[in-house]
Every structure is written in structure tokens, then in C-alpha cells.
What we know:
By secondary structure, chain A is mainly β. Helices cover 0% and strands 49% of the residues of chain A. By secondary structure, chain B is mostly beta strands.
Amino acid sequence: QVQLVESGGGVVQPGGSLRLSCAASGFTFSGYGMHWIRQAPGKGLEWVAYIWYDGTNQYYADSVKGRLTVSRDNSKNTLYLQLSSLRGDDTAVYYCVQGPRGKSWFSIWGQGTLVTVSS
Amino acid sequence: QSALTQEASVSGTVGQKVTLSCSGNNSNIGAYAVGWYQQISHGAPKTVMFGDSLPSGIPDRFSGSKSGTTASLTISGLQPEDEADYYCSTWDYSLNVWVFGGGTKLTVL
């Protein structure tokens, strides 16, 4: 079945860096765009980043532009999110989400991985 | 505040029909299909509607519609397991980002 499994979350100090991974299975990974969406504690969902199916284009929310970088390795069926210059308001559960090519909605969600920015 | 506007809370009794709304503008809802996402007890969200189409495995008591710049999610025959937070989202071509509503907490009385 279609599955997305995030990993790499943890506790990091303000200003620090972290790399999240998302292992995809059960579908043709290289045929889909992929998103990262986050949810701060007690808050709603916030879209963070999107990468095209072939990795040639990326889109970012203004709140993370220049600090977070989305990438993918289609040979490994894996999506990445590099987080740097982390701030307290980056504390959130980060979800890896499948995005059908050319569509405005999200389809399959991973279980999420928690990033806590704290000294 | 969120780019899309949703009711903060909605409630209904078992078997009742409830409608959740999501309002935007011509650069988002007016131009693109809306996705609806269910989140139960702060678990991972699940897609329950995209446009007016049901993902596989979602019961047909869920339905979606759109009129102008407002989208709606209707649950006919409300069940206890429908109690959750519901979020709407779509692409915004003027902002070049995906936007979310603030979410609606649905309570089944």
C-alpha cells in the first residue's frame, strides 16, 4: 500500500540545523510532486514547501524561504527537508505529503516527525 | 490569519447533516479545486475530499461542492467517528503558495 514514513526529527538549538527524510513506497515516487506541511503545537496546518516530480522546481512559504530546502532522490524514493537557522516558531510536526502532478490538493499523508527548537 | 476562512466550530447530532464552509477569493478557491483534510485527535491528517471527488475508502456520506469563492464539505448522516478537525486548502496563484483555512472543529453530540 502507499506509505510515507518520515524520520530525522528531534530537539535542536536555535540557529541549528536538521535534515528530515521521507521514505516513500507503494507508488511510483518519480511521478508525483511532494510537499512538506507542518503543524505547530495547538495550531493549524501550514504548507511549507513543494518540489516537482523531477526535482527541477521548488516552492516555499515566505516564512521559511532561505532557511529550509526541499530536495529529493528518485533513485532512493526519498524526499528531504534541510532545516537551517532554526527558530522557536519552527517547532512543529512536519508531514511529508504526496501531491498529484498539476493538482491543487494533497493526497497521501505521512505520520509526521516532531522538530523541537529549544535551548 | 489564514488565507481561507472556516468556521471555528460546528456541532451536530448522530444522523444529522452538517455543512462546513471554506471561503477564499478569486485567486484561490475561485480558480482551483479545494481539498478537505480530516485530523482526528491530533493524529496525521487524512484526505477526505478533493474537489467533488471522494478518495478511495472514504464513505459516501461525505460530499464536496463549490460556488464562486466558497467551498463546502457536507457530511450526511453524521457518525461519532466523524468528530475531528477539518481543514480546507488549495493553490493561490497570486501568492504562489498553497493556502489553508484555520480549521473547523466538528463535534458530534
